[in-house]
Amino acid sequence: MKYEVVIGLEVHAQLKTQSKIFCSCSTEFGRPPNDNTCPICLGMPGVLPVLNKKVVEFAIKACLATHCEVQPMSRFARKNYFYPDLPKGYQISQYELPIGLNGYINIQTNGTPKKIGLTRIHLEEDAGKSIHGENLGMPGRSYVDYNRTGVPLIEIVSEPDLRSPAEAREYLVQLKAILDYAEVSDVNMEEGSLRCDANVSLRPVGQKEFGTRTELKNINSFKFVQKALEYEIERQAKVLDQGEAVVQETRLYDSDKGITFSMRSKEEAHDYRYFPEPDLVPIACDKVWIDEVQQSLPEMPEQKRDRFVSDYKIPEYDAGVLTTSKALADYFETCVKQFNQPKIISNWIMGDLLRELKNDNKEIDDCPVAPGQLTDLLKLIDDGTISGKMAKTVFEDMYRSGKPPAEIVKEKGLTQITDESALTKMVEDVIAANPGQAADFKNGKDKLMGFFVGQVMKASKGQANPALVNKLIKEKLSS
User: Fold this and answer.
1) What is 420-478's CATH number?
2) Contact (Cβ atoms closer than 8 angstroms) between residue 380 and residue 392
3) Angle CA 67–72–76, to nearest 5
């Protein structure tokens, strides 16, 4: 490659407090438009913001979970810009004194570990939401829903340490898991609880100075972040190859067309005319408070991954997949408590279960197969009631119907045939019907074993015990 890719990510995560950052309005998602509002979050004259202590506690948690240094003193600032969904005409954010500095997140791509630095974590309030008439069948009109105005956010700003779209995606996966485990955000991208802006630039390989960057704004899925970066990298490379200069700007990603397009010229910090927020005092975080929050942190993803490998003897890859969310890790551990075969459980979760959830665009929280149902299915395989192949059919039915596995096995008549005398008769009939293949097998064509097993399984409608069938075929053809 002629160019080195340089990527930095800015992630906004909504904190899952019950009330907003500067007023007592609810943060509940899905309420009727402008229902969760009051004079404070609507920016009425004469009102004063009051800081929600829980917001600061959650921000400290996020800092500690990402190895940031919690600052003993931080301060809010006014970020001035005009937009219809910003009723005050400014956003209360943090600028020169954020709550957290100098953190990092560990990622791994293609088996190679890498530490991604975090520049800062700062607190701010969210803006409202503009709803354009074209989406409502009323072109030419626009509406504003202020329910989201004043909802507490943390912005997590990475160092420009990412070197590929794949690394950017893995960083987001790990960051999402950390915020989920720390229980500071529900990290629901569909509801806007987690949003990502990506800064990307190219520079000739070997050059120290960064190239001109573009910002990709408000991308709401990991897949789209990766796709948008891939497109933008290709676009910038073409611009540079033609001897032209990349323009510093903000661009949006059209997921239907798979392209980015210009939104506006990129603002600089001075464009926002930051100054200290006069209606709020600085935030003091003393060591006692920070230590209390540290003690309240649960087991984090990296710790859980290491424990899964050491305690359950599963591969690092499996542990990485199973700990991508706290709910998935809990599902796995609940299964292991009921059926102590960690690797078998891991295979079923990573294979059949996650595939069905992905097909239905569901999370593990919405899984129709409870841990007890999955382990009941695995016990039926373990005691020889059904074969592994039958279990696949039973699982699909379980997932769709919610019925327990034993009931499905009974309804479908899937009980495995383990009666040796019955299977012996089937094996003898198959051998008698295929004398040529039997003779070839005896003459050294061992691969024909698969043919005979297949014929017996066909004759038994898939219900014969495969291990017993193999044993009987070998005995009969060797005699």
Assistant:
1) 1.10.10.410
2) no
3) 100
pLDDT digits (tens, 9 = 90+) for 378-388: 999 888 888 88
How far is Cα 33 from Cα 275, in angstroms, rounded to an integer?
Answer: 31
Query: Which amino acid, 303?
Result: Q
Q: How far is CA 461 from CA 414, 415, 453, 471, in A?
A: 9, 11, 12, 19
CA 136 to CA 158: how far, in whole Å?
37
Residues 6+ apart with CB under 8 A from 464: 416, 417, 423, 426, 456, 457
- Strands (E) located in 110-190: 112-125, 129-132, 142-145, 152-158
Phi first, then psi, for residue 7 (nearest 5°) are: -130, 135
CA 96 to chain centre: 31
End-to-end CA distance of the chain: 64
Give the whole-angstrom CA distance, residue 156 versus residue 168. Answer: 14
Q: Rounded CA gap, 297 and 353, in Å?
A: 29
Count of other CB atoms within 10 angstroms of residue 272 = 17
Length of the chain: 479
**Backbone phi, psi, residue 109, to 5°:** -130, 130
DSSP-assigned beta bridge partners for residue 113: 108
Band (419; pLDDT cuts 50, 70, 90):
low
Which residue's entry shows tokens 């829903």? 145
Exposure class string for 320-345: b at 16+ Cβ within 10 A, else e: bbbbbbbebbebbbebbeebebbebb
For every residue of 67-81, DSSP letters joined together read: T-EE-SEE-EEEEE-
Residues 328 and 322 sit within 8 Å (Cβ to Cβ): yes
Taking alpha carbons only, the member of 125, 145, 131 closest to residue 37 is: 145
What's the predicted TM-score (pTM) here? 0.83
Residues 227 and 258: beta-carbon distance below 8 Å: yes
Residue ranges of the chain that CATH labels 1.10.10.410? 420-478
Q: What angle do CA 62, 146, 100 make, to 5 degrees?
A: 20
Q: 63 near 153, Cβ under 8 Å?
A: no
Taking the alpha carbons of 400, 403, 404, 405 in that order, is the dihedral positive or negative? negative
d(CA 152, CA 368): 33
DSSP state of 184: S
Q: How far apart are CA 98 and CA 75, in angstroms?
A: 7
pLDDT digits (tens, 9 = 90+) for 446-467: 777 788 878 877 877 777 777 7
